[in-house]
Write a structure and sequence with these properties.
The chain folds into three domains: 1-152 and 289-323, Bira Bifunctional Protein, Domain 2 (BirA Bifunctional Protein, domain 2, 2-Layer Sandwich); 157-279, BirA Bifunctional Protein, domain 2, CATH 3.30.930.10; 327-380, no CATH class. It has twelve helices and 16 strands. It has helices spanning 15-34, 57-62, 82-93, 134-150, 163-173, 177-188, 192-198, 204-212, 222-229, 237-253, 313-316, 336-347; strands at 38-39, 45-47, 64-67, 74-77, 99-106, 122-129, 157-162, 217-218, 259-261, 274-279, 288-292, 306-312, 327-330, 351-354, 365-372, 375-380. The strands form three sheets. The protein has a nine-stranded mixed sheet, sandwiched between helices. It has a four-stranded mixed sheet with strand order 14-13-15-16, covered by helices on one side. β3 (64-67) and β4 (74-77) form a beta hairpin. α4 crosses α10 (237-253), α5 (163-173) packs antiparallel against α8 (204-212) and α6 packs antiparallel against α7 (192-198). The longest helix has 20 residues, at 15-34. The chain starts with 14 loop residues before the first helix and ends with a strand.
Length: 382
């Protein structure tokens, strides 16, 4: 018999891991609901132009494409759900006030983010549309932290930055196309030698600002240092630092720890302002990312401020995976009282396995349903 082999970075999810993943999904959606977020379920595939809110080369490369047999148009398998939710907010819901939306479903990547990354993450996230103030960013970060705590991650490091700092400096330098991308990539890697090379010939004040960003890392004093070394006369720089300070003050008031990382610009192309990432021990990369993406719905006919976060549920599952809950073994049969007893136990929340040649060493049964006298009773399995 042929051995079936799955594609690289694609894996089956077996019962114990699936149980943990699904339990976490349900718990997180319940948590989102208590904050007022409403669940939406966008389609797995749609016309490819609807899967990007703007020209996003990285997301485009990660998107599988196919031809729709019915229309002949190119379709894509979503690699990110945020653009779809933006379309729903802008084009379908069309609410005038704030919309809190959440989602939890699979995405598919044509290439993995890393050697150990899955190409089929289970993406879950929450987003606020229609509010431009810092309060929305505070809420999604508070929800993110509570979500990670619910997943059992007690020690979380939260890095906050502002991609507007890079855009302000790059715009002032006139950086475009490949030159802008090269500077951006060097900044993401905190690669100062490459950053010096890629900024050669640019105004010295702007270069000094770009080279300073990777050094602006740490606690509450970072903003004060940033104001002393960054060119505040460039439009957008002072505003970004003010937003970062306001966010930090609000997080402190809520007892949420954070670190500034003003080179923290690892984000999707649609992010426009505050960005944040959560890290924890045992994970090489961020376990969750988010930020502000104002005007994200402009492509779909309505520009709306927005902020949110997402994470991969499967990345949060960890060993040991939980065993199945204890179950009751019941005999097979059509006797009315037996049928009624099984139904009553299941209605009470018990797991009941009808004995269809059940192997006890492969099942979670620790009790058995037996007829004692005229009554069906649950007794310990000897």
């Amino acid at each position: 018999m042929r051995n079936w082999i799955l594609p690289e970075n694609i894996a089956d999810v077996l019962p114990r891991e699936a149980r943990q993943t699904e339990t976490l999904r349900r718990s997180l959606l319940d948590l989102f609901g208590r904050y007022g977020y409403e669940l939406v379920m966008p389609p797995l595939i749609e016309y490819v132009e609807s899967l990007f809110v703007l020209d996003d080369p990285a997301l485009n490369l990660k998107t599988f494409k196919l031809v729709d047999e019915l229309s002949g148009r190119q379709m894509g398998v979503r690699a990110d759900i945020t653009p779809q939710v933006a379309r729903i907010d802008a084009h379908i819901l069309n609410r005038q006030g704030v919309a809190r939306l959440c989602y939890a479903d699979s995405v598919v990547h044509s290439r993995p983010d890393g050697i150990l990354s899955s190409r089929e993450p289970r993406q879950i996230g929450a987003e606020i549309y229609g509010h431009v103030g810092i309060a929305a960013d505070v809420e999604v970060i508070e929800l993110l932290v509570e979500s990670l705590q619910l997943a059992g991650l007690a020690q979380i490091s939260l890095d906050i930055g502002h991609i507007g700092l890079f855009h302000a400096l790059a715009n002032a330098a006139g950086l475009k196309g490949d030159a802008r991308d090269a500077v951006f990539d060097a900044l993401q890697q905190k690669d100062l030698p490459t950053l010096r090379e890629t900024t050669a010939g640019i105004d010295a004040v702007i270069v000094a600002g770009l080279l300073a960003l990777p050094t602006l890392y740490g606690g509450a004093g970072v903003i004060e240092r940033a104001r002393s070394v960054l060119p505040l006369q460039i439009a957008g720089v002072s505003e970004a630092l003010t937003a970062l300070q306001a966010l930090a003050d609000a997080l402190t008031a809520r007892g949420i720890g954070y670190r500034f990382d003003l080179a923290e610009v690892k984000s999707s192309d649609y992010h426009t302002g505050l960005v944040f990432a959560a890290y924890t021990a045992g994970f090489a990369n961020a376990i969750a990312r988010g930020g502000r993406y104002d005007s994200v719905g402009e492509k779909f006919g309505r520009s709306r401020p927005a902020t949110g976060f997402s994470l991969d549920l499967r990345a949060l599952t960890h060993l040991p995976f939980p065993a199945a809950p204890p179950a009751i073994l019941a005999p097979a049969g059509d006797e009315p009282s037996l049928i009624a007893a099984i139904r009553a136990l299941r209605a009470a929340g018990e797991t009941v396995l009808v004995d269809l040649d059940v192997r006890l060493d492969e099942s979670p049964c620790d009790r058995v349903l037996q007829l004692i006298g005229t009554q069906w009773q649950v007794v310990a399995l000897s």
